Amino acid sequence: xTNEAMIEAIGLSKYYGDFAATRDVSFVVPRGQxxxxxxxxxxxxxxTMKLLTGYLSPSAGTAKIAGYDVFSERLxxxxxxxxxxxxxxxxxxxxxLGLLRFFGQARGLNGARLRSRIEAVTGQCxxxxxxxxxxxxLSKGYRQRVGMAQVLLHEPxxxxxxxxxxxxxxxxxxxxxxxxxxxxETKTVLLSTHILQEVDAVASRVILIHAGRVVxxxxxxxxxAHGATMDxxxxxxxxxxxGSSCEAAGx
Length: 251
Prior knowledge:
The protein is of the alpha/beta class. It has helices at residues 45-53, 74-79, 96-106, 111-124, 140-152, 170-183, 197-202, 220-223, 230-240, 245-248, and strands at 5-16, 19-30, 34-38, 60-65, 68-69, 81-84, 158-162, 188-193, 205-210, 213-218. The strands form 2 sheets. The protein has a 6-stranded mixed sheet with strand order 6-7-8-3-9-10, with helices on both faces. A 4-stranded antiparallel sheet has the order 2-1-4-5. A hairpin with a 2-residue loop joins strand 4 (60-65) and strand 5 (68-69). The longest helix is centred in the middle third of the chain and has 14 residues, at 111-124. The protein is globular, with a radius of gyration of 18 Å.
């Protein structure tokens, strides 16, 4: 890992009227790091990721990918980024092969280069057996792999993934986590999750957000340094930051 900044959130805030989805969120993820982005439901994880990817514009602050401002240098930042939202952009009437061709061409890949990249991500995501099947007929696990393959197609340096294991069975979760670990050897990965087991499985760093603010940023061991379990530390940090998640949600 080097100190080169690949993901930068600089004072990111997003307001909807008087409601603050995120407030002054700042952190830097260097090249070669797998970082878990934790938080209760409604904490601001997905909003922050959409700000980092340019899907949303901030009310204040700056987001950068590989040194490029996501908003003023949109095409350059997008070329270095692979984004897997919680419900990925899959077209159920297409096959994985057709989808990869479509997205590859949209990314400017053609001919031998496109064929080479499809072959590479097909092997990387273990899609050989389903390439010609309708996406509508694939399991949740295979659909997640197709989404991952699409994200990797243009060889991005930065991967941002929102809840990549949600809805998967234990075997599928194991497979996706192993793929993320492999990708972390050469990519910078920001992984949003509310599943605490994900942290020990794949991440070397934790950023914990609650009520739109960062309340912890450090190594996973730092959360449990005083003998608390990960569950206990998570609860203590989120409870301190303005009440429990139920209270924050108005329940």
